[in-house]
Recover the amino acids of this structure.
Protein backbone atom coordinates (compact mmCIF):
# COMPACT_ATOMS: atom_id res chain seq x y z
CA UNK A 1 0.00 0.00 0.00
CA UNK A 2 1.25 3.51 -0.77
CA UNK A 3 1.28 6.01 2.09
CA UNK A 4 -1.55 8.06 0.58
CA UNK A 5 -3.87 4.99 0.52
CA UNK A 6 -3.50 4.42 4.27
CA UNK A 7 -6.70 5.61 6.02
CA UNK A 8 -4.90 5.25 9.38
CA UNK A 9 -2.29 7.82 8.30
CA UNK A 10 -4.91 10.46 7.41
CA UNK A 11 -6.86 9.92 10.62
CA UNK A 12 -3.83 9.74 12.96
CA UNK A 13 -2.30 12.94 11.54
CA UNK A 14 -5.60 14.67 10.97
CA UNK A 15 -5.19 17.23 13.75
CA UNK A 16 -1.90 18.37 12.20
CA UNK A 17 -3.30 18.84 8.69
CA UNK A 18 -6.99 19.61 9.18
CA UNK A 19 -7.17 21.60 12.43
CA UNK A 20 -10.11 23.84 13.32
CA UNK A 21 -7.72 26.79 13.09
CA UNK A 22 -6.83 25.85 9.50
CA UNK A 23 -10.53 25.43 8.69
CA UNK A 24 -11.18 29.02 9.87
CA UNK A 25 -8.16 30.42 8.00
CA UNK A 26 -9.22 28.56 4.83
CA UNK A 27 -12.72 30.03 5.02
CA UNK A 28 -11.23 33.55 5.22
CA UNK A 29 -8.83 32.82 2.34
CA UNK A 30 -11.57 31.47 0.07
CA UNK A 31 -13.82 34.44 0.82
CA UNK A 32 -11.21 37.01 -0.28
CA UNK A 33 -8.88 35.29 -2.76
CA UNK A 34 -8.80 36.88 -6.22
CA UNK A 35 -7.59 33.51 -7.56
CA UNK A 36 -10.81 31.91 -6.31
CA UNK A 37 -13.14 34.54 -7.75
CA UNK A 38 -15.20 32.93 -10.56
CA UNK A 39 -18.57 33.82 -12.13
CA UNK A 40 -21.55 32.99 -9.90
CA UNK A 41 -22.74 29.43 -10.39
CA UNK A 42 -19.38 28.16 -11.70
CA UNK A 43 -19.01 24.40 -11.42
CA UNK A 44 -15.96 23.80 -9.22
CA UNK A 45 -14.24 20.46 -8.57
CA UNK A 46 -12.12 20.27 -5.40
CA UNK A 47 -9.86 17.36 -6.38
CA UNK A 48 -8.48 15.68 -3.22
CA UNK A 49 -10.91 17.59 -1.01
CA UNK A 50 -10.06 15.68 2.21
CA UNK A 51 -12.45 16.57 5.07
CA UNK A 52 -13.69 19.48 3.01
CA UNK A 53 -12.02 22.61 4.35
CA UNK A 54 -12.55 24.37 1.00
CA UNK A 55 -15.98 22.94 0.18
CA UNK A 56 -18.27 25.00 2.39
CA UNK A 57 -16.50 28.35 1.74
CA UNK A 58 -16.59 27.69 -2.02
CA UNK A 59 -20.34 27.09 -1.85
CA UNK A 60 -20.72 30.28 0.18
CA UNK A 61 -18.84 32.14 -2.58
CA UNK A 62 -21.62 31.13 -4.94
CA UNK A 63 -20.32 28.04 -6.74
CA UNK A 64 -21.73 24.60 -7.45
CA UNK A 65 -19.16 22.40 -5.74
CA UNK A 66 -18.05 18.77 -6.07
CA UNK A 67 -15.41 17.15 -3.86
CA UNK A 68 -13.41 14.09 -4.92
CA UNK A 69 -11.16 12.12 -2.60
CA UNK A 70 -9.77 8.60 -2.25
CA UNK A 71 -10.44 8.38 1.49
CA UNK A 72 -13.91 7.19 2.54
CA UNK A 73 -13.19 8.34 6.09
CA UNK A 74 -12.28 11.92 5.09
CA UNK A 75 -15.28 12.12 2.75
CA UNK A 76 -17.51 11.06 5.63
CA UNK A 77 -16.14 13.96 7.66
CA UNK A 78 -16.65 16.34 4.72
CA UNK A 79 -20.27 15.13 4.41
CA UNK A 80 -20.88 15.62 8.10
CA UNK A 81 -19.51 19.22 8.11
CA UNK A 82 -21.55 20.14 5.02
CA UNK A 83 -24.71 18.60 6.49
CA UNK A 84 -24.17 20.42 9.80
CA UNK A 85 -23.70 23.75 8.06
CA UNK A 86 -26.50 23.13 5.55
CA UNK A 87 -24.44 23.48 2.38
CA UNK A 88 -25.15 21.37 -0.68
CA UNK A 89 -22.10 19.62 -2.19
CA UNK A 90 -21.61 16.55 -4.31
CA UNK A 91 -18.99 14.12 -2.96
CA UNK A 92 -17.36 11.30 -4.93
CA UNK A 93 -14.91 8.67 -3.74
CA UNK A 94 -12.39 8.27 -6.57
CA UNK A 95 -8.71 8.12 -7.43
CA UNK A 96 -7.28 11.27 -9.06
CA UNK A 97 -5.24 8.98 -11.30
CA UNK A 98 -8.38 7.79 -13.10
CA UNK A 99 -11.17 10.24 -12.23
CA UNK A 100 -12.54 12.05 -15.32
CA UNK A 101 -15.95 13.67 -15.89
CA UNK A 102 -15.72 15.01 -19.46
CA UNK A 103 -16.48 18.73 -19.85
CA UNK A 104 -18.17 18.85 -16.43
CA UNK A 105 -16.38 21.74 -14.69
CA UNK A 106 -15.46 25.40 -15.11
CA UNK A 107 -12.73 25.10 -12.49
CA UNK A 108 -10.63 22.27 -11.04
CA UNK A 109 -8.77 22.96 -7.79
CA UNK A 110 -6.09 20.80 -6.20
CA UNK A 111 -4.84 22.46 -3.02
CA UNK A 112 -2.68 22.06 0.09
CA UNK A 113 -0.03 19.88 -1.57
CA UNK A 114 -2.29 17.15 -2.95
CA UNK A 115 -0.28 16.72 -6.16
CA UNK A 116 2.88 14.75 -7.03
CA UNK A 117 2.01 11.68 -4.95
CA UNK A 118 2.60 9.02 -7.63
CA UNK A 119 6.01 7.33 -7.97
CA UNK A 120 5.84 7.33 -11.77
CA UNK A 121 6.17 10.96 -12.96
CA UNK A 122 3.87 10.19 -15.91
CA UNK A 123 1.06 9.32 -13.47
CA UNK A 124 1.27 12.84 -12.04
CA UNK A 125 1.00 14.27 -15.56
CA UNK A 126 -2.03 11.97 -16.06
CA UNK A 127 -3.75 13.79 -13.19
CA UNK A 128 -3.30 17.05 -15.14
CA UNK A 129 -4.63 15.41 -18.30
CA UNK A 130 -7.67 14.13 -16.36
CA UNK A 131 -8.34 17.64 -15.06
CA UNK A 132 -8.01 18.97 -18.62
CA UNK A 133 -10.59 16.41 -19.84
CA UNK A 134 -12.97 17.28 -16.98
CA UNK A 135 -12.88 21.02 -17.78
CA UNK A 136 -15.00 22.81 -20.36
CA UNK A 137 -13.00 24.80 -22.98
CA UNK A 138 -11.97 28.04 -21.24
CA UNK A 139 -12.00 26.30 -17.84
CA UNK A 140 -9.16 26.70 -15.32
CA UNK A 141 -6.97 24.30 -13.35
CA UNK A 142 -5.32 25.69 -10.20
CA UNK A 143 -2.79 23.67 -8.20
CA UNK A 144 -1.35 24.78 -4.85
CA UNK A 145 1.82 23.05 -3.59
CA UNK A 146 4.94 23.80 -1.59
CA UNK A 147 7.27 24.97 -4.35
CA UNK A 148 10.84 23.74 -4.46
CA UNK A 149 12.17 27.31 -4.20
CA UNK A 150 10.00 28.04 -1.13
CA UNK A 151 11.04 24.85 0.60
CA UNK A 152 14.71 25.60 -0.01
CA UNK A 153 14.30 28.70 2.22
CA UNK A 154 13.50 26.78 5.39
CA UNK A 155 14.21 23.07 4.97
CA UNK A 156 16.71 21.49 7.33
CA UNK A 157 15.18 22.43 10.65
CA UNK A 158 12.83 19.82 12.23
CA UNK A 159 9.41 21.35 12.91
CA UNK A 160 7.44 20.84 16.12
CA UNK A 161 3.65 21.10 16.01
CA UNK A 162 1.92 21.17 19.39
CA UNK A 163 -1.56 19.66 19.54
CA UNK A 164 -4.12 19.23 22.29
CA UNK A 165 -2.37 16.65 24.54
CA UNK A 166 0.08 15.57 21.84
CA UNK A 167 2.79 16.82 19.53
CA UNK A 168 4.16 16.04 16.08
CA UNK A 169 7.81 16.28 15.01
CA UNK A 170 8.29 16.73 11.26
CA UNK A 171 11.60 16.10 9.47
CA UNK A 172 12.05 16.72 5.76
CA UNK A 173 14.65 15.05 3.54
CA UNK A 174 15.38 16.02 -0.04
CA UNK A 175 15.76 12.96 -2.32
CA UNK A 176 17.15 12.32 -5.80
CA UNK A 177 18.86 15.71 -6.27
CA UNK A 178 15.79 17.82 -5.35
CA UNK A 179 13.40 15.66 -7.37
CA UNK A 180 11.38 14.31 -4.44
CA UNK A 181 10.80 15.04 -0.76
CA UNK A 182 10.38 12.56 2.08
CA UNK A 183 8.59 13.84 5.15
CA UNK A 184 8.87 11.79 8.35
CA UNK A 185 6.32 12.50 11.04
CA UNK A 186 6.34 11.29 14.63
CA UNK A 187 3.14 11.82 16.61
CA UNK A 188 3.57 11.44 20.36
CA UNK A 189 0.43 11.06 22.50
CA UNK A 190 0.26 9.64 26.00
CA UNK A 191 3.91 8.58 25.71
CA UNK A 192 3.20 6.45 22.63
CA UNK A 193 4.85 7.35 19.31
CA UNK A 194 3.27 6.80 15.86
CA UNK A 195 5.57 7.16 12.85
CA UNK A 196 4.64 7.94 9.25
CA UNK A 197 6.69 8.62 6.18
CA UNK A 198 5.44 10.18 2.97
CA UNK A 199 7.23 10.80 -0.29
CA UNK A 200 6.10 13.07 -3.09
CA UNK A 201 7.54 14.92 -6.08
CA UNK A 202 8.84 18.44 -5.63
CA UNK A 203 8.32 20.99 -8.39
CA UNK A 204 9.90 24.32 -9.18
CA UNK A 205 7.64 26.92 -10.79
CA UNK A 206 9.22 26.28 -14.20
CA UNK A 207 8.81 22.50 -13.86
CA UNK A 208 5.15 22.62 -12.84
CA UNK A 209 4.40 25.21 -15.52
CA UNK A 210 6.01 22.85 -18.07
CA UNK A 211 3.82 19.95 -16.92
CA UNK A 212 0.69 22.12 -17.30
CA UNK A 213 1.77 22.94 -20.85
CA UNK A 214 2.51 19.25 -21.61
CA UNK A 215 -1.05 18.43 -20.49
CA UNK A 216 -2.50 21.01 -22.92
CA UNK A 217 -3.02 24.09 -20.71
CA UNK A 218 -2.27 27.60 -22.00
CA UNK A 219 -1.81 31.00 -20.34
CA UNK A 220 -0.04 29.27 -17.45
CA UNK A 221 0.81 31.62 -14.57
CA UNK A 222 2.52 31.16 -11.19
CA UNK A 223 1.62 32.91 -7.92
CA UNK A 224 3.13 32.94 -4.44
CA UNK A 225 -0.11 32.75 -2.45
CA UNK A 226 -3.91 32.99 -2.63
CA UNK A 227 -3.76 36.81 -2.62
CA UNK A 228 -2.22 36.47 -6.12
CA UNK A 229 1.19 37.58 -4.88
CA UNK A 230 4.06 37.10 -7.36
CA UNK A 231 6.05 33.88 -7.09
CA UNK A 232 9.22 35.55 -5.81
CA UNK A 233 11.50 35.39 -2.75
CA UNK A 234 8.54 36.29 -0.47
CA UNK A 235 6.33 33.44 -1.74
CA UNK A 236 4.83 31.05 0.83
CA UNK A 237 3.26 28.63 -1.66
CA UNK A 238 3.52 27.79 -5.34
CA UNK A 239 0.17 28.22 -7.06
CA UNK A 240 0.01 27.40 -10.76
CA UNK A 241 -3.01 28.26 -12.89
CA UNK A 242 -3.68 27.31 -16.51
CA UNK A 243 -6.56 27.45 -18.95
CA UNK A 244 -7.96 24.75 -21.23
CA UNK A 245 -7.92 26.47 -24.61
CA UNK A 246 -11.15 27.19 -26.48
CA UNK A 247 -10.87 25.27 -29.77
C1 LIG B 1 -2.76 16.97 2.11
S1 LIG B 1 -4.41 16.40 1.99
C2 LIG B 1 -5.23 17.86 1.45
C3 LIG B 1 -6.74 17.81 1.57
C4 LIG B 1 -7.48 19.10 1.20
N1 LIG B 1 -7.20 19.50 -0.16
C5 LIG B 1 -7.18 20.22 2.16
O1 LIG B 1 -6.90 21.35 1.70
O2 LIG B 1 -7.27 20.03 3.37
C6 LIG B 1 -4.36 15.35 0.57
C7 LIG B 1 -5.66 14.65 0.23
O3 LIG B 1 -5.46 13.89 -0.95
C8 LIG B 1 -6.23 12.69 -0.85
N2 LIG B 1 -5.65 11.72 -1.78
C9 LIG B 1 -4.46 11.10 -1.67
N3 LIG B 1 -4.24 10.31 -2.74
C10 LIG B 1 -5.33 10.44 -3.53
C11 LIG B 1 -5.69 9.88 -4.79
N4 LIG B 1 -4.89 9.03 -5.43
N5 LIG B 1 -6.88 10.24 -5.34
C12 LIG B 1 -7.71 11.10 -4.69
N6 LIG B 1 -7.42 11.65 -3.48
C13 LIG B 1 -6.23 11.34 -2.93
C14 LIG B 1 -6.09 12.30 0.61
O4 LIG B 1 -7.08 11.38 1.00
C15 LIG B 1 -6.19 13.68 1.28
O5 LIG B 1 -7.51 14.00 1.56
Amino acid sequence: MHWYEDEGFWSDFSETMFSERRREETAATVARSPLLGFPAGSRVLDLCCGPGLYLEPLVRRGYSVTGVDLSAELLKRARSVCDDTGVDVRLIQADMLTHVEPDAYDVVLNVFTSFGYFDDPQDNVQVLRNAHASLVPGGQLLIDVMGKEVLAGWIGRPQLVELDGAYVVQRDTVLDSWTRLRTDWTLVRDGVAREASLTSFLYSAAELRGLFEDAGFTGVECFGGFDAEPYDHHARRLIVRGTKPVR
